[in-house]
Design goal:
Elements (H helix, E strand, L loop, with lengths): L14 H14 L4 E4 L6 H6 L9 H7 L8 E2 L5 E4 L11
Parallel strand pairs: 1-3
Antiparallel strand pairs: 2-3
Length: about 90
């Protein structure tokens, strides 16, 4: 398993766009990909993948130590899943 992380606190630095394009390229190359959108603006999950947080959210995983697998949501792309951001992330301080 390989883990790739694209992080930057500065807004407007193309993190979501780069992640979306890299994920697509990796899926086309035969990899299974899980994207985790931890940005409270929810761009990657909602805008790019059209996936919204379900009942089990990333913020509940981080705050309540819930099982992360329950927050994984399918996308319309085969072998590509996402954990979308949710409004609860706005209350988490770094």
């Amino acid at each position: 398993m390989r883990i790739i992380s694209l992080t930057n606190l500065k807004g407007g630095s193309a993190k979501s766009t780069t992640t979306f394009n890299l994920a697509g390229s990796l899926v086309e190359a035969g990899f299974r990909v899980l994207c985790i959108d931890i940005d409270p603006q929810k761009t990657l999950g909602e805008a790019f993948f059209g996936v919204y947080a379900g009942e089990n959210t990333l913020s509940s995983v981080l705050i309540n130590d819930s099982m992360i697998g329950a927050a994984i949501r399918p996308t319309s792309f085969e072998n590509l899943q996402v954990i979308p951001a949710d409004d609860g992330l706005k209350g988490i301080k770094s």
